[in-house]
Amino acid sequence: MSQIKAGDTHGNTLEKPETIAICAIGTAYSGKAEWAQATLRSHENIQGAIISGGGPGEREENWKERINKALSGSDVLIITMDQLLDPRQLRDCAAYLNEHGVGDISIQYFPLRPLWDLLRLDSQHHYAVGAPELKRQIGSQQMEDKYWDTVESVGQHG
Question: What is the 3-state secondary structure (H, E, C) of the chain?
Answer without folding.
Answer: CCEEEEECCCCCEEEEECCEEEEEECCCCCCHHHHHHHHHHHCCCCCEEEECCCCCCCCHHHHHHHHHHHHCCCCEEEECCHHHHCHHHHHHHHHHHHHCCCCEEEEEECCCCCHHHHHHHHHCCCCCCCHHHHHHHHHHCCCHHHHHHHHHHHHHHC
